[in-house]
Amino acid sequence: MRRWPPILSCMLMLGALVATVLRTIRGPNDWAEAHWLLDYRFGFVKRGLVGQVLTWTTGLLGIPVSEGLIGGVALAICVGFCGLLLLLACRIAKDASWSPAVVAAMVAFLTSPFLVMTGHVVGYYDHIFLPLGVLSVWLALRGKLWAGAVVQALALLIHESCAVLIYPVFALACLLHSTGRTEPAAKPPSLLPLLLPVVMAVVMAIVLASPPAGFPQSYADHLKTFPFVQGGYDSITPSLLALSPGQAWALATSKWPGLPSLAERMTQPSAYGLLLPTLIALLVSFAQRARLPASLESGAVAFVVLVPQALHLIAWDFERIWTCSILMAFLVVWLYSEARRLEHTEQVGVFTASLLAVAANLLMETPLLDYAHDQMPRWVRVCVMLALLGALLLLAGMQSALPLRERLRWRGQSLADLWLRRPR
Q1: C-beta atoms surrounding 13 within 10 Å
Q2: Are 388 and 15 in contact (CB under 8 A)?
Q3: Pick from 76, 89, 281, 322: CA 20 to 30 A from residue 209's CA?
């Protein structure tokens, strides 16, 4: 009986992930394909590292760069990224002794608009630098701060948005590692590695403030040799990549005919409706287990979760940006489950909040890029929702049906633990 909850939980999370990604999975769009064709032949340009690796690899293998090759590689990377998220969710659930409330919160994340968007943006560099960010956090938690900082610097070369999408989590991991050392004779670890990605970002901002001479035209001419880059992206992509941060800010904050202004994007009710259910389920579950007091640490957690919204100031794909805070909340939960032993407590209201989040995630449609629509009919999503909710209720029923001794073992406790923790 004790083996069934972990097995059912893992199957449940896998099914939630697969069903969610299938709602929007597609090949790379023209914007993403154009990025894969950018390399350092045009000089030191931002986002050129991945294309350079692709150019080197295809040159060594003697094969041409084609649409099918880019699509296949991008799809494989997306699958790997989804597998990583599933692995982290399983680790969080295992750390919580497969508590139905925590498993339900993980299912809420795996059905969230962020996972819907993950299948939709195959080919985007998010699927490369975000796993690198997870690697840097993992290294930091094991005391390898300099190695983690180097990985962060590498991620910045892949995409500059790494500075707000993953560096804050890395910084929080370094701080948790430095404050979590309890050996009295141990020398506190240096936080100097935190400065390496910052210095890298500043240098990139200075060097890339103006692109290499002739970059937009030479890059556009290069893209025209690949007929699969259509929709005008052979000229749009070079012009947008040549913008300085100040120019990008001016463009994103300007009012354009037919497009929402920055204020309208930030106050869009539908965005909050998509964001809040999963965010509440994750953060309430985290708050009840971590029990952080109102302090600088809790403020740092809030900052990490909300800082991705700063991308609205320099980017237009607000549908994707809104969902990034869901990922940050999930990574915070994972970070604390790895860095600290969270309490195994009965989570009041978390199970219900997570069930509501799962229902909301499957009933509502996430706004997509390129005027695309959800590929899964509503009636199919309703069936998936009912199956997931039924499985979660079954999981909760299996826990409540366990004898007391079995339940205590399942939750990683014992009668001796309860005796030692009794009020004195």
Answers
A1: 23
A2: yes
A3: 322
Residue 108 sits at φ, ψ, to 5 deg, of: -60, -40
For residue 370, what are its two tokens?
């390129």
CB atoms within 10 A of CB 283: 19
Virtual torsion, Cα 174, 180, 181, 187, nearest 10 deg: 50
Contact 209, 244 (CB under 8 A): yes
Q: Do residues 81 and 131 make contact, with C-beta atoms less than 8 angstroms apart?
A: yes
Quote the distance between the C-alpha of residue 380 and its chain's center.
26
> From CA 16, how far away is CA 18, in angstroms rounded?
6
113 token code pair: 């608009």
Query: Shortest CA distance to 314 belongs to which of 364, 238, 222, 246?
Result: 246
Backbone angles phi, psi at 188, to 5 degrees: -55, 135
Those residues whose C-beta lies under 8 Å from the C-beta of residue 247, and which sit 6 or more positions away, are: none
- pTM as predicted: 0.90
Q: Which two tokens stand for residue 287?
A: 């708050």
Is the sign of the CA dihedral 316, 317, 323, 325 positive or negative?
negative
d(CA 39, CA 44): 8
Rounded Cα distance, 176 and 125, in Å: 28
Q: What's the one-letter identity of residue 187?
A: K
**Pair of tokens at residue 177:** 């590692």
* SS3 per residue for 340-386: CCCCCCCCCCHHHHHHHHHHHHHHCCCCCHHHCCCCCCHHHHHHHHH
